[in-house]
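Exercise 7. Predict the joint structure of the components listed below.
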Amino acid sequence: MSVDKETVMKIARLSRIAISDAEAESMVPELNAILGWVEQLAEVDVSGVEPTTAVIPNKLRLREDKVTDGDVREKVLANAPARENGFFGVPKVIE
Amino acid sequence: MTESTYRIQGSTGEWEVVIGLEVHAQITTNAKLFSGAATEFGQEPNTQVSLVDAAMPGMLPVPNEECLRQAVRTGLAINAQINKYSRFDRKNYFYADLPQGYQISQLFHPIVGEGEIEVQLDEKDPDSEVRVIGVERIHVEQDAGKLMHDQHPTMSYVDLNRCGVALMEIVSRPDLRSPSEVGAYVKKLRSILRYVGSCDGNMEQGSMRADVNVSVRKPGPITEENPLGTRSETKNVNSIRFMMQVIEYEAQRQVDLIEDGGTVAQETRLFDASKGETRSMRSKEDAHDYRYFPDPDLLPIELSDEFIEECRASLPELPDAKRARYENELDVSAYNAAVLTADADTAFWFEGMLAAGAKPKAASNWLLSELFGALNKLDKTLAESPVNPSQAAELLGLVDDGTISGKIAKDVFEIMLESGQGAAAIVEEKGLKQESDTGAIEAVIADVMAANEDKVAEYRGGKDRLFGFFVGQTMKAMQGKANPQVVNELLKKVLDL
Amino acid sequence: MSDITELGVAAIRDGVAKGEFTAVEAAEAFNANVAAGRALNAFIVETPEMAIEAAKAIDADKAAGKPLGKMAGVPIGMKDLFCTEGVQSTAGSKILEGFIPQYESTVSANLWKAGAGMLGKLNMDQFAMGSSNETSHFGNVLSPWRIQGSNHDLVPGGSSGGSASVVAARLCPGATGTDTGGSIRQPAAFTGITGIKPTYGRCSRWGVVAFASSLDQAGSLAHDVRDCAIMLEAMAGFDPKDTTSLDAQVPDWEAALSSDLKGKKVGIPKEYRMDGMDGEIEALWQKGIELLTDAGAQIVDISLPHTKYALPAYYIIAPAEASSNLARYDGVRYGLRDLPDGAGLQDMYAVTRAAGFGSEVKRRIMIGTYVLSAGFYDAYYTQAQKIRTLIAQDFEKAWEKCDVILAPSTPTAAFAPGEQSDNPLAMYLNDVFAVPASMAGLPAMSVPAGLNKDGLPLGLQIIGKAMDEQSVLNAGLAIEERADFTARPEKWW
Ligand SMILES: [Mg+2]
Ligand SMILES: [Zn+2]
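Solution:
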């Protein structure tokens, strides 16, 4: 599978990364070189093989239903590019 | 026409409406799904947010066991398959209410599989049709934060208090066929969740809301030639009334669209409650490739048989079982049984009365007429009732053993509501104990007859309906405290000579 | 008194404990080297005052006769991937420039508890994506090494290039690193120092900026095996805040160090002998075999059949996880926000991320987005995860025949900046020997074992069984003692 400029544009949009036509143009061969190289994985017979879930055998640990966190608004907002009245601010969203 | 044949009349004939629901129910917990922050509703913005919820760099999720437990208990309550192996997956998309840039959900391996819910189309009518609605799956996922658009001229505000609160997404099969079926299904689901205690079902606070999937097709069995139509998904509808409006609006819109030669787009839509309309959510359209993959921060969920059995053992008696038991073992009327069991609180109140010795039939009638009537007037909920179940049982006990008449009972109940005093105490203090001593009653009857010789003559002359007049006079003279049966017997004796 | 900055972790700790010098003297000495070493561009933030603070506390404890921790009095460098409370943490990126964490990563907190102090935050490849330290927003880190008789710069390797450079140049006695696909072992090899990546889950990932969650693992870089063991011991440990962290006791690795390998079997994987392999690397590997034989080990040939697929599978799994892990850098809650006039929310995301991420990071995010996107998920991601299972099974089979595996750390010695940066694939190949162990979550380390014809260091890699860091350290020690690698870069900075 190889990508064209439109696909690169679509991926960039999905990734929320603004790119110019020229950048998209130049990324086509780059991405295709990498994708072409990973193609070789298709030749491996994986019938009956389970995908890796935990690389080192381990069990999911669960938490008790206790309130142990939160109420740290200052820490939460400390690095905010825009904050007002205890909220984060973002450009107005029209739904 | 019965509900199951709801149809839209189009210019090309009748259309069947096919509905599937994705109900998002907030799991009742103290802390969030993956963080120790509180879940309480209506707090100051961003005060119930941990660094994990705010998706600070390097923060990691740790699952809250109670959320999984409640999802499993809910699954068991609808006889669903419990999946001993499940996983959390990431659903990737960008929005300001989603700090991580992905929602942790379950796509590939949900914790609960196939189940079903029996729905009585008209809960008030025990003989109305019962439909079995399939539930495809229940999965656990994170709620998003909240955006406020009306607080600032150029900015939207972001509050992450809800962000990361645990939800169950309960996905129905496309088995629903009319707005009222949907109403009945959601009411029944809500009832089950409240019995199980996994969700408070509070729609006003958004603890329960639904994505409504609607499509239309020509009536008849689903076949290659006549398959299901393309569905629209209207997001986050937060009341049963709105859900019904959405269905009516969408069904009509789709029928008109198709009959005008158009085609229905598979899209997500928004409901505008003010207009009673739905409209397309273009804003999110292009981002519809969610790139789901297993969350590498979280290992698979493996449930033990012990865990599942503990969940099963912890389930209360559920509405259907309760209703049958009330009808068959307590011989409560079918209607009363239905209404009593529809909501957990009512059933528990009723059982509280029985535990305090009340007789089921009398208790059910009294609760649904007297108590509900009074609470209505006072505009109070059952939980706020000034009278508790054992006080109520005491009152009914006094009627049952003849200490007071049903009529006096009503007055006593009034006083109980105001004073909070016990029934027996009130009867004692106000001397309302009813008179069954024949001697005293005979004396009063004698006076009544003496005072109304003309009427006695008329009665004896054949005017039987005057009997009620004598009963009334006698009771009046005894301020209603006379035992009505005794009065009747004695009057008959002296009048019918 | 001899120059404290010539001493390693163990020597400083012992010197402070014995009262040969104070912790403050040690901190001052290294602060001076840090200030004098700016030409290396290895630090993003210098924190001399914090190093002094920590040292004063240790000297006070000692005066009060209190017990001293494993790292008491040792000032170290902290890779900028670790979030440090109140100190800018950027992961080498523009998008996190100015970000001041309100929390301390578990690993760094463990080090401070053990008595270490912080000299500063170390430059690195942006979001740990790179093998040469040419992708940092804060400029390239330079290696202290140069080709004999040349004054041309060399790369220190990456992504923990700042960590490697400061240890090799003696700006720090030890430094933290992280290894997702070779990011500790490759720079250690390039700079003639020792670096270890433990079993996946030994060190908590809490508070470490995530690159690829299923691969990221913190480790240590230092002068020698003993210093790496001491530091790793302080860093490791169960953390309930990371559900992938291992609920296992951390052994006293330092105490159990032994270079006597009698009865140990060392596996030599034939698949690592790739055609076109650099003759000097092959010779180094042979030398390693001889050193370990001399230490009493028995050499056995083993096969890891899926080795050649490890790197391409890694370049699906790591970018896929990264594309999702880096979605949180959106300009809403912290970090860079680029908001053109009249831009909406989604434009803000796209513009902010375009301005905040470097080209290699963008490349990997886009690869990851592509391989996860509708229609491609199974062909790429699922296939890669199945191959990952096969790679892990290869190692499982190997462990039936041997206790540790010996391999080269890298296919070449350090190269010059710009030499490979315009060819991503060539750059990725730097990690061809390192990635298989990462994919299987196994402990692995690089120890310096010789110089190439240009006088540049080369490293040997030892890979061990899960949870058996001890065998890795011991084999590493055996090589260290016999290789007696004493070469040092000539000071030019
Ligand atoms: Mg939905
Ligand atoms: Zn959902």
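Discussion. The two ends of chain C are 24 Å apart (CA to CA).
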